[in-house]
Amino acid sequence: xxxxxxxxxxxxxxxxxxxxxxxxxxxxxxxxxxxxxxxxxxxxxxxxxxxxxxxxxxxxxxxxxxxxxxxxxxxxxxxxxxxxxxxxxxxxxxxxxxxxxxxxxxxxxxxxxxxxxxxxxxxxxxxxxxxxxxxxxxxxxxxxxxxxxxxxxxxxxxxxxxxxxxxx
Length: 168
Known about the structure:
Blueprint: E1 5-11, E2 30-35, E3 39-45, H1 54-61, E4 65-71, E5 75-82, E6 86-92, H2 94-101, H3 110-113, H4 117-130, H5 137-145, H6 152-162
Antiparallel strand pairs: 1-3, 1-4, 2-3, 4-5, 5-6
Helix pairs in contact: 4-5, 5-6
């Protein structure tokens, strides 16, 4: 069984783990890495449930932020928010994600939960612009449509690299 857990990405002068928006983590977040311009990646392994609010994190930091929830290393649910362009969702490993969602809610599919990859890539470009980064939608789309392999968390970090916030 592969990795299960959350990654939280944001930009702040203060540690993200101490912010009100992530109070649902109950102090269990650990710093995974820091990147230039105050970007931080925090990790909460092995946990399901409510972590906090992506909208509130973006408001509290005044900067774009995102969550990645890795499921058994097979797929990643991505939720992103920014103060100006709002919330968007995507997933890495759509086929594997469809398998996890099958049977959870009658009649709902992966397309009901997540944007189509091309739409998500477009929203990611706006998110990156708000973060002061210039990215190409095609680079984001390639990550969103790639086979994540046995460690989908690597695809998540590739996405952060393509968003130009945390180098791979």
